[in-house]
Amino acid sequence: MTDVHRTIDAVWKLQAARIIAGLTRMVHDVGLAEELAQDALVSALEQWPASGVPDNPGAWLTAVAKRRAVDHIRRSRRLEHGQGRLAHELERQDREHGSGGDTEQDDVLRLMFVSCHPVLPTEARVALTLRLLGGLTTGEIARAFLVGESQIVRRIAAAKRTLAEERVPFELPGGPELAARLSSVLEVVYLIFNEGYSATSGDDLTRPELCLEALRLGRLLAGLAPHEAEVHGLVALMELQASRSAARTGPSGEPVLLHEQNRGRWDRLLIRRGFTAMLRAREIGGPPGPYVLQAAIAVCHAQARSAEETDWARIAALYGALARLLPTPVVQLNRAVALGMAHGPAAGLALVDSLTGDPALRDYHLLPSVRGDLLARLGRLEEARLEFERAASLAGNVAEHAFLHRRAAEIPAPAAPGPTLGQAAREFLERGGLDAGTVRSYGQTLRRLRLAVGDRTPLASLTADHVARAFTAAWGEAAAATWNRHRSAVRSFGAWASMEHLAAGLDRRAETRPRTRGIGPAQLEALWNRPDLPLRERTLWRLLHESAAGVTAVLSLNVEDLDLDDRRARAGDSWVSWRSGTARLLPDLVAGRTRGPLFLTDRRPGPSRVPAQADLCPETGRRRLSYERAEYLFKQATRALDPAGDGYTLRRLRYPT
């Protein structure tokens, strides 16, 4: 990455929230505002390497984004307004709002509360706000939530659609609504801070700009809700944690553990601010919430003049109270650290071991890191080394990865008693006689096992209990077919390695396949006769019903593969055919197009979401309609027909009643 690109990335992280917030005020559509902001970012990537970085890069991005917003509004309202009058109106609004700090702060706060609106489920509120206000990528958000990236992508896309469809106003809530929506906003702000304080990816341990942004948003919230103790508790927590930033890394950017930090480098101003915010929270009173409790823990660390003087007994008690209020696995892991310091490593290890099968922590590098530290303090060095190696393999941050590798290397490795799990897995997959699909399937199973147990674990020490814990964490809630597929892979691996006992703790699950019922004739008739049904949806649904083909196969159809005379189309190695209902609709849907996907999205993709060439229509610039979007539209359209009120899935169009 060049210096200019690094500058653009840094500017974007700092300015994205302000730019998107200002655009949302103009266009009243969060999704469109982000696309316009991304257009401005693309312009910077194209122009700045040649012309140089502007003196005020944030203002440059804002100006370009606003010009694009004005152009969009002009195009969309040309029939409603005279172009000159519209331009004058937009310029007047821009002069009234200006670019002053107060207006920008208000816009960012409005954007926060819009992103956290009650029409969205909690997880979607948090993911969307992290994306818009924190400038985080979907991968970074996924790691913050300990879920898959595709799940975050779907949450954000669904959240934007919901906000647009519900016409959520761009305004600050008031009265009781403010208190009701505050908790999710606080959660978002703290997650932004945590991503800055301990970056989940990249070369550096920290991303200071995110910490500063979260602190700024927290202070603004404290001014907006001065009588909410949890707001001041969060501000105190962030101020106190941020006070340790300078001491958290060594000369080469390597992490420095809390008990090894030079406390003279802690920022006394931030500590005083944290104490002040904590006093405000206590003055407000009431039962302490999770942020007030975490701030109280941070106060204990800040008050100790040295690591030895830390009141670990009080910290352990505070974590106990926090765990009763917020019994998440991450809180329990932090509590285990405190117990290990207050009552000895054996006490901490007992709690950590109870968490090893928790699905939420299966790829969380701090779990084996904490376990390794406790094992080392107990003198179980070989086990500790394996845990540090496993933690390093899970760490997404380069600095943490290197730090954990060094901790593992500091413990001498004994002479290898035989092959490791990683070596054996590679030999198993590379042997002859396995087709590509089997290698891929077995590889998924063994990769999960290697992550859970550790690549360098001696194969001879692998037990059925290790395997059972890994399976429970990874596939405990999975469908029976998925569980059985992975179980079969372990059985094959165990037989090859002469360790048939590995699958002893994995019972085969009964697979039941409930019959899928179709949609009734009366309901279908009501659906076909809807006058407001768009042509694309009408054609897609008819085609699915008449062809009985799979949804994926139908959505993969291309215009050039259609044979309208024979009423069929090539779909991979098979054919999809249809009857008269679809035949009447297809010519209008194609509308003269000769190439590209048959079913297209409504709008062109934004610059940050460029699809594969095969999924892009060369004539319209629009992309192939996704399965998720098609499913969502069908569910929305059939809610009234479904007695349960949930709406039907597209698969039900292919089955008879």
From TrEMBL:
Signal peptide: none annotated. Residues 514-657 form the Tyr recombinase domain. Keywords: DNA-binding, Sigma factor, Transcription, Transcription regulation. GO terms for molecular function: DNA binding; sigma factor activity. Pfam families: DUF6596, Phage_int_SAM_1, Sigma70_r2. InterPro entries: CB, DNA_brk_join_enz, DUF6596, Integrase_catalytic, Integrase_SAM-like_N, RNA_pol_sigma-70_dom, RNA_pol_sigma70_ECF_CS, RNA_pol_sigma70_r2. GO terms for biological process: DNA integration; DNA recombination; DNA-templated transcription initiation. Residues 84-99 have a biased composition (Basic and acidic residues). Residues 419-498 form the Core-binding (CB) domain. Residues 84-103 are annotated as: Disordered. PANTHER family: BLL0085 PROTEIN, BLL6612 PROTEIN-RELATED. Belongs to the sigma-70 factor family. ECF subfamily. NCBIfam families: sigma70-ECF. This is RNA polymerase sigma factor.
